[in-house]
């Protein structure tokens, strides 16, 4: 069994992002996306994800399809393999462009 990553979730993800998601995505956050990031953050257990560039270099985005649109939502996170304990930090989860904008603001990189 793979080693589990700890999850560190920015407080604004719970305060601002999650409340504004469709109900199904709120459920998916807990039942699908969090477990995927805990056990396979590099490959996303077969879900689409990619490395980011520019002001979000070293961060990644999990591509979340909604109602047939593969670019509908993004969950922005960073993997920390060192130092121990290994963890994944989730900085935003929102529609495509706002997810990136929120991440930059929360990191002070706007």
Question: Explain this structure to me?
Answer:
The protein is α+β, with helices and mostly antiparallel strands and 110 residues long. It is 32% helix and 32% strand. The chain contains three helices and five strands, in the order βααββββα. It has helices at 11-17, 23-39, 96-106; strands at 6-9, 49-51, 60-66, 69-80, 87-95. Strands 1-5-4-3-2 form a five-stranded mixed sheet. The longest helix is centred in the N-terminal third of the chain and has 17 residues, at 23-39. The protein is globular. The termini are far apart.
Short description:
By secondary structure, the protein is of the alpha+beta class. It has 3 helices and 5 strands, in the order E-H-H-E-E-E-E-H.
**Structural classification:** alpha+beta
* Beta-strand content bin: 25-35%
Low-confidence stretches: none
Report the count of strand segments: 5
Report the sheet with the most strands, covering strand number, pairing sense and barrel closure: 5 strands, mixed
């Amino acid at each position: 069994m793979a080693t589990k990553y700890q999850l560190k979730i920015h407080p604004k993800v719970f305060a601002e992002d999650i409340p504004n998601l469709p109900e199904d995505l709120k459920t998916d956050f807990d039942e699908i996306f969090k477990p995927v990031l805990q056990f396979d953050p590099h490959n996303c257990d077969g879900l689409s994800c990619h490395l980011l560039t520019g002001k979000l270099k070293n961060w990644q985005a999990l591509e979340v399809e909604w109602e047939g649109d593969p670019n509908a939502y993004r969950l922005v996170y960073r993997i920390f393999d060192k130092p121990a304990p290994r963890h994944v930090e989730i900085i935003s989860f929102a529609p495509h462009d706002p997810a990136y904008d929120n991440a930059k603001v929360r990191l002070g990189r706007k």
